[in-house]
Amino acid sequence: MDGSTIRGLVLDEQDWPIEGASVSLAALSPGRSAPDIAQLTNGAGRFIWSDLDEGRYEVSVRAVGFHPASAQTYAGVLTPARVDFHLTRVSQPRRPQVERPAARSGGDPDEQVTSELGEGGGDVVEGSHD
Known about the structure:
Elements: E1 4-11, E2 22-27, E3 39-40, E4 46-52, E5 55-62, E6 69-75, E7 81-86, H1 109-119
Parallel strand pairs: 1-7
Antiparallel strand pairs: 1-4, 2-3, 2-5, 5-6
């Protein structure tokens, strides 16, 4: 192996690191190979592949709750590659909102009217007229 390196960072839209994102490589240069195992990003969202053959690679990233992403790069012995990703969240389908009737203040509507009349200075008369 030539000792080429590909390193990078996986972040979300707010530049927070994504821990546990799966990073894989595919060799694009003829006659070259890439490791056949994915890596997981660390707590800082970082990954590194070292001791690679010099050549072109496609770096792919997947993380639960995010859209996958990929990028192509060239890793040389004297020119290590850096590939950073900003993943976007998969939007959750919104639940339909049910319109609820406006809540009335107080309990029984008749009591509310009586209360409003009494507070407003009007006469509240109970009983019956002869």
